[in-house]
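Handout, section B. The chain below has 133 residues.
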Amino acid sequence: MAEIAPQLLSEPGFGPLIAAKLVGEIAGAQRFATPAKLARAAGVAPIPASSGNTQRQRLDQGGNRQVNAALHRVIITRARCHQPTRDYIGRRRSEGKSTRDAIRCLKRYLTRHIWRLLQPPHPVKEKLSPSIS
């Protein structure tokens, strides 16, 4: 796994099993044109569920449940031992959101981050120096 996606293993909350599950289920992040398309395929894209004066969103019940479960495990692990994640959840709670809403937001954020990490590296174009003849 370390040869395929070492960038995932270096992230907090990702172990070899979760990283392998994500790489296997996503099957090439480059097939998704945007992180939003990956979020939709993973089932973490927000869906408007507003009623009257209440403005809220819910998670998609469709999508790949294996990817969604792996993202959930990473978020729960980070909520336990990753201080920036704990701070984020605390900020969302102080804004009046529930813990479930904060986790929903974190899943979307984490999906964007994973999409960026799994993109193939872009080759750096070398400047061609004029040949001296």
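Note. The chain has one domain: 6-118. Compare this with the example in section A.
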